UniProtKB/TrEMBL annotation:
Claim: Iron-sulfur is one of the keywords in the record: yes
EC numbers on record: 4.2.1.12
Name recorded for this polypeptide: Phosphogluconate dehydratase
Listed GO CC annotations: cytosol
Pathway named in the protein's UniProt entry: Carbohydrate metabolism; Entner-Doudoroff pathway
Species: Sphingomonas gilva
Top-rank EC class of the record's enzyme: lyase
Name of the encoding gene: edd
Family: Belongs to the IlvD/Edd family.
Length: 606
């Protein structure tokens, strides 16, 4: 299938913008492969330290000359998605020996749960935990003891952080190893209804807790299509998973065999073999474009409008929101998974899941088939779903039709002819909006502003009835430099209730809403942020604000001379406690959301 003309044009734009930086990156990984730190160059004392902790593998590592695989793990047993990794290292070591190689845990990375920290001070560490994870990954791989790596991580900042760090060791082959989603719990729509009733005072805290526990009930990722599961969709279409690994449930034979296959694949991709596939060559501009396309086609998390540019930068690739916007106009919406529909990711997987979506997009020339993947083949390998047949992995062809057309559809019958993303711009700055779950008659909201500096104040105003009207809620000083750009999920229930009451409501913020963005139009990631002179700092209560996803407009309808003369509101003092003061350096040196909101990448000149 010939590439779609716009996909080809966007890829060419990215390739041209990246020519210098990608060239530097490819030079880096070539140097690291040929003359960087690795086991043959380590001294005897250095090697002895590296072998000392692994008696059972020492002789094989010392004399065999076979690959040694580094395991970088995000295991902890507080976070349901990563609790699944508890036994993985010992299993991987056994499987490694089966394939004639060895494996060691190179290091651990932090994995925080946004679901636990939502609305509390810890959430202000969340975005910058990604840079911390990248740095931890670099530390783990810095020893020169490994000829390949397995990256064990799933959730919001963990996968981007692992990739950013790993890409600086891009001469090594690496495979992402997911753990899968928890099984069906309380349907997401029912959970959201209880949250809205609680926001109105119609449900007790005990009822709300019962509903939340029924929804988040076991090991694995949360079952809604938020950032964690969008991560898994991206890894599939970038060719960094074993094909079809994204949504097999934990603690199943299929999940175990997919992990075993990840060990087999990385063992065969080393520089000494005849099928060398280093991570840095797998992640190129085509793979990055594929990730953007599949996010749009499935209504994925808006967090990746920050994370994907950061991942790309780590590989010398430059992508911005203009590229997303152009792609969104030609990429159809093929999936409806909560919050863009009622189904969870288990139902999405049963209906066809990532292989179905990838096959459909390939058939329309909307993905790059010819990327370098970790699979035995190009992206076509990712159009088949793994199963266990005769006690072994197999990948049969998918049926031609969707298993449930209310969840996933063919290219010929999409939910929408366009993706779910728009850029907004005007005198309030530049923002993005996810519209895949927003009814078309709410793509334009024009109403008086009510201005807040935190989401708790919004909740209190809602409870007092002060927002029972058409309103554009402006929540500012929530950007990366101000307070680490927390997600503002606490706003979703009250804004949803207001919309249910018939009011025309929108949110404008320099903060984040992430993959849980739903039916209320939200202009998010507004840049430049309010701290430091961004125009959101000029808005006052009563200003008429226009949010229009149809025309791509975000503006305060204030006369130009008055707007120019208006002073900026004082910024709140940065809060301390809960470790927030330790992240001051990352806040102070962070760049804009559209570039990835990273101090680490900015200071590295990437």
């Amino acid at each position: 299938m010939t590439l779609h003309v716009e996909l080809e044009a966007v890829t060419a734009r990215i390739r041209a913008a990246s020519a210098e930086s990608r060239g530097r990156y490819l030079d880096l990984i070539a140097r690291e492969r040929d003359s960087g730190v690795d086991r043959p160059r380590l001294g005897c004392a250095n090697l002895a330290h590296g072998y000392a902790g692994t008696d059972e593998q020492r002789d094989a590592m010392r004399f065999g000359g076979a690959m040694n695989i580094g395991i970088v793990t995000a295991y902890n047993d507080m976070l349901s998605a990563h609790a699944t990794y508890y036994r993985y290292p010992e299993q991987i070591k056994i499987w490694a020996r089966e394939f004639g190689v060895t494996a060691q845990v190179a290091g651990g990375v932090p994995a925080m749960c946004d679901g636990v920290t939502q609305g509390y001070p810890g959430m202000e560490l969340s975005l910058f935990s990604r840079d911390t994870i990248a740095l931890s990954t670099a530390v783990a791989l810095s020893h020169g003891m490994f000829e390949g790596a397995l990256l064990l991580g799933i959730c919001d900042k963990i996968v981007p952080g692992l990739l950013i760090g790993a890409l600086r060791f891009g001469h090594l082959p690496m495979v992402m190893v997911p753990g899968g989603p928890m099984r069906h719990g309380l349907p997401n729509k029912e959970k959201a209804a209880v949250r809205e009733r609680f926001a109105e005072g119609k449900a007790t805290a005990e009822e709300l807790l019962d509903a939340e526990i029924a929804a988040y009930h076991g090991k694995g990722t949360c079952t809604f299509y938020g950032t964690a599961n969008s991560n898994q969709m991206m890894m599939e279409v970038m060719g960094l998973h074993v094909p079809g690994a994204a949504f097999a449930n934990p603690q199943t034979k299929l999940r175990q065999e997919l992990t075993r296959e990840a060990v087999r694949r990385v063992a065969g991709l080393g520089a000494k073999g005849d099928d060398y596939r280093p991570l840095g060559l797998c992640v190129d501009e085509r793979a990055i474009v594929n990730a953007a396309v599949v996010l749009l086609a499935t209504g994925g998390s808006t967090n990746h409008l920050i994370h994907l540019p950061a991942i790309a930068r780590a590989a010398g690739v430059a992508i911005d929101w203009e590229d997303f916007d152009r792609l969104s106009k030609v990429v159809p919406l093929l999936a409806r998974v909560y919050p863009n529909g009622s189904a969870d990711v288990n139902a999405f997987e049963d209906a066809g899941g990532p292989p179905f979506v990838i096959r459909e997009l390939l058939s329309g020339g909307l993905l790059h088939r010819d990327i370098l993947t970790i699979a035995d083949g190009d992206l076509g390998a990712y159009t088949r779903k793994p199963v266990i047949e005769s006690d072994a992995l197999a990948w049969p062809e998918l049926p031609a039709e969707s298993g449930d057309s209310t969840i996933v559809r063919t290219l010929a019958d999409p939910f929408s002819p366009e993706g779910g993303f728009r850029i907004l711009a005007g005198n309030l700055g530049r923002a993005c909006i996810k519209v895949s779950a927003v009814e078309r008659d709410r793509w334009t909201i024009e109403a008086p502003a009510r201005v807040f500096h935190d989401q708790i104040s919004v909740q209190e105003a809602f409870k007092r009835g002060e927002l029972d009207r058409d309103v554009v809620v402006v929540v500012r000083y929530q950007g990366p430099r101000a307070n680490g750009m927390p997600e503002l999920h606490k706003l979703t229930p009250p804004l949803g209730v207001l919309q249910n009451r018939g009011f025309r409501v929108a949110l404008v913020t320099d903060g984040r809403m992430s993959g849980a963005s739903g039916k209320v139009p939200c202009a998010i990631h507004t840049s430049p942020e309010a701290l430091g002179g961004g125009p959101l700092g000029k808005v006052i209560d009563g200003d008429i604000v226009r949010v229009c996803a149809v025309e791509g407009v975000l503006e305060a309808l204030v006369p130009a001379d008055e707007w120019a003369a208006r002073p900026f509101a004082p910024a709140p003092v940065a809060a301390d406690g809960t470790g927030r003061e330790l992240f001051a350096m990352l806040r102070n040196h962070c760049d804009e959301a559209e570039r990835g909101a990273s101090a680490m990448l900015a200071e590295a000149g990437l």
